[in-house]
Specification:
Elements: H1 2-6, E1 34-38, H2 53-63, H3 70-73, H4 85-96, E2 106-108, H5 124-141, E3 146-150, H6 152-162, E4 166-172, E5 180-185, E6 191-195, H7 211-217
Parallel strand pairs: 1-2, 1-3, 3-6
Antiparallel strand pairs: 4-5, 5-6
Length: 219
């Protein structure tokens, strides 16, 4: 199944610095209640020019273990695999939802790498449009019930794409910052969770943890 999804990645992106799959073949072979989506791969597209979408597709398809997750098995920022704060926070959320990161489909809304989304060459809208066919196929074929969006801006884009405009829940951080995460439904029962970004919000800390809200609405 993962190989079929890989064929949906536009060929003109294969030479672009970036990545597609954040989990391996086991995660994309069976129905999944949850689909995890970040915004786009971070890093330096010039310094990582050789880390292309095509190279990444080949790695996940042919080399990575079937049970693999970027949130568990990759080394980020020179740290031991899975130990970066971002990785630990995503794994905590999935654990609270009873999900295994190695068996939960995960990706990014946009496959091209950039230092900041504002510096993405070609513009956000064009990249989003080019990648959405892939995500639409994943949502439909894997019978996804909740899209967990890492970052509110990711959630805004996904809600627009899925017509998820019915607000059903909000979680406000219990701290001075008071950032808000939310869950919206669409007319087909798909839910979109727009969460504070785990690069900043420490989901492993109870005042910032939106997982209970997601538990209540993962139906």
């Amino acid at each position: 199944m993962l190989e079929d999804f890989a064929k949906l990645v536009p060929s003109d992106l294969h030479t672009t610095s970036g990545s597609v799959f954040y989990s391996g073949r086991d995660a994309f072979r069976a129905p999944s209640a949850i689909y995890v989506l970040g915004l786009n791969p971070g890093g330096d597209p010039e310094g990582q020019a050789s880390d292309t979408v095509g190279k990444h597709l080949s790695f996940v398809t042919n080399e990575a273990p079937a049970a693999w997750s970027a949130y568990t098995d990759e080394s980020w920022l020179g740290k031991p695999p899975g130990s970066a704060r971002f990785q630990r926070r995503v794994r905590h959320l999935l654990s609270q939802l009873g999900a295994d990161p190695r068996r939960t489909p995960s990706s990014n809304l946009i496959f091209a790498r950039s230092r900041r989304i504002s510096t993405l060459e070609g513009g956000v809208s064009a990249h989003e449009e080019e990648c959405w066919g892939f995500h639409e196929a994943v949502i439909q074929r894997l019978a996804v019930r909740m899209i967990v969006c890492l970052g509110v801006s990711t959630g805004v884009a996904v809600r627009r794409r899925t017509a998820a405009d019915q607000l059903v829940a909000q979680f406000r951080e219990k701290n001075q910052r008071g950032w808000t995460s939310s869950v919206h439904f669409n007319g087909s029962g798909l839910s979109v969770a727009s969460l504070t970004h785990p690069s900043i919000a420490d989901w492993t800390s109870e005042p910032c943890d939106p997982s209970e809200m997601l538990q209540r609405h993962l139906i």
